[in-house]
Specification:
mainly alpha, 65% helix, plasmid, globular
């Protein structure tokens, strides 16, 4: 599935690229798809603990309860 470029906030795209560069391409892709299909908040709830870059992003943006 090709996602529209404007559908993903730049900060989220940067997090996914960093996670993918760290060897977690599958997790990063799934995170991006979850953001696209639901929301950044929901994606953070679903993926927190699976990748340090995603964890840092979710904590910094307040998307973790």
């Amino acid at each position: 599935m090709i996602l529209p470029v404007l559908a993903i906030p730049p900060a989220v795209a940067a997090v996914a690229k960093a996670a993918a560069a760290g060897g977690a391409a599958v997790v990063a892709g799934a995170f991006m798809l979850d953001v696209y299909n639901t929301s950044t908040y929901t994606a953070c709830q679903n993926f927190y603990g699976q990748n340090g870059v995603i964890d840092n992003f979710c904590e910094a943006t307040g998307h973790i309860d």
